[in-house]
Amino acid sequence: MNVIRSEKIESTEDDSNLAAVSEVEAGIRDFVRNDVAYLRRPGTPASTETALEPNGEATVNNVNSLIQRVAGTSLAEIENLISELESLRDLLHAEGQRVQREISGYAQLSQAAMKSTRMIADNVTQWKRAADGLRNS
């Protein structure tokens, strides 16, 4: 169920990203069209130092705001990704420590089992010798 919800969230984010990118591209196209149309007018100075028309200035501001919105969204996504990766790193670190403790516990248990087995085998060997000595006498 979480996978379905995650896929819906990802597709919603992808759709909003595509919409934002399309909006920026449309704004840039409009800006370029207005700029080209402005430069093609007769009597328009070719210098870039001239003041922009109010319409051109509004277009520039609009394009800037579009770029800031897209950049803001991207930065927010990057920050979310960084925070998720940091959480995952912490989780993996904690799990690594837990696994090391488990392995250490199993190693100690294995050593204790080996010692117990050795003691039992030694005792059985001594009992066998004692039983053999009693039979031979």
Observed structural traits:
137 residues; mainly alpha; 2 helices
**Taking Cα atoms only, what radius of gyration do you get, to the nearest Å?**
38 Å
Shape: rod-shaped
> How many H/I helical runs?
2
User: How much β-strand is present in the residues?
Assistant: under 5%
Low-confidence stretches: 46-52
The major β-sheet equals: none
Helical residue percent band: over 70%
Instruction: Give the strand tally.
Output: 0
Q: State the order of secondary-structure elements, H for helix, E for strand.
A: HH
Question: Which structural class do the helices and strands define?
Answer: mainly alpha
Mean pLDDT: 79
Calculate the terminal CA-CA distance, rounded to whole Å. Answer: 78 Å
What count of domains describes the coordinates?
1
Task: Give a structural overview.
- With 137 residues, this protein is mainly alpha-helical.
- The protein has one domain.
- It has helices at 2-40, 54-136.
- The model is unreliable at 46-52 (pLDDT under 50).
- Helix 1 packs antiparallel against helix 2.
